[in-house]
Write a structure and sequence with these properties.
The protein has two domains: 3-64, Multidrug-efflux Transporter Regulator, Chain: A, Domain 2; 80-197, Response regulator (Rossmann fold). The protein has a five-stranded parallel sheet with strand order 5-4-6-7-8, with helices on both faces. Strands 1-3-2 form a three-stranded antiparallel sheet. 31% of the residues are buried. The chain is globular and about 50 Å long. It has helices spanning 15-22, 26-34, 52-64, 88-101, 113-122, 139-148, 165-170, 187-197; strands spanning 12-14, 40-42, 48-51, 80-84, 106-110, 127-131, 156-161, 179-182. Helix 4 (88-101) crosses helix 8 (187-197) and helix 5 packs parallel to helix 6 (139-148). It has eight helices and eight strands, in the order βααββαβαβαβαβαβα. It is of the alpha/beta class.
């Protein structure tokens, strides 16, 4: 693929980043590209870029056999939530809030943007709650990747941060349709965000 037809760089990753997401070596990623398992192209500077959607699809395909199908007679499943934050204390707080607000939701955690993308590739959560400032891949970059996907996006995405709105705007801002809450997040604020999203009928909107 040449640069004229290449996807936006925000929807792609380097070979090193793809290897980290997939948990394999760079030569393995290169072999998978050569075999057509991953879509890639080269930049003008001859650097290989790999389509993020194909990486996530590959993760999902490899993980599909590990997930047992839900019986038809099973009760409706609980909502699933993925919390992304490099602070264990903040993850614990957000987990407790999510369980209370979403009435027993199943919660998974990730400590940076890369780990979050891997988790989303394996199972798309109903709700994604992510910090903005994190090492390796920050929340804004991760959100740009997630929001660029045509399929496999969480139903509700919430960004949380103690940064001033002006600073967040300087960093590029949160993508459209991403709800932004200020840290420390209160139960009322998260309850209001879920109410505005319409994910759970009957939740009040704290902003009104």
């Amino acid at each position: 693929m040449n640069d004229a037809n290449a996807p936006d760089a925000r929807t792609s990753v380097s070979t090193t980043e793809a290897a980290a997401l997939l948990g394999v070596s760079k030569p393995t990623v290169q072999r998978w590209v050569d075999r057509g398992h991953l879509k890639a192209w080269k930049t003008v500077g001859h650097h290989r870029r790999i389509e993020l959607a194909s990486v996530l699809a590959f993760i999902a395909e490899k993980s599909a056999g590990e997930v047992a199908p839900m019986p038809r007679s099973a009760a409706p499943r609980a909502l699933t939530v993925l919390i992304v934050d490099d602070s264990p204390e903040d993850r614990t707080l957000l987990r407790a809030l999510a369980v209370r607000v979403l009435f027993g939701a199943t919660v998974d955690e990730a400590d940076d943007g890369f780990a979050a993308l891997v988790a989303i590739g394996r199972q798309v959560p109903d709700v994604l709650i992510t910090d903005i400032m994190m090492p390796h891949m920050d929340g804004l970059e991760m959100l740009r990747h997630v929001c660029a996907l045509e399929t496999g996006r969480p139903r509700v995405i919430v960004a949380v941060s103690n940064l001033a709105p002006a600073r967040i705007a300087e960093l590029g801002g949160v993508p459209k349709d991403v709800l932004l809450l200020r840290k420390p997040v209160s139960e009322a604020a998260l309850l209001g965000a879920m109410g505005r999203s319409g994910l759970v009928a009957g939740l009040p909107d704290a902003s009104t």
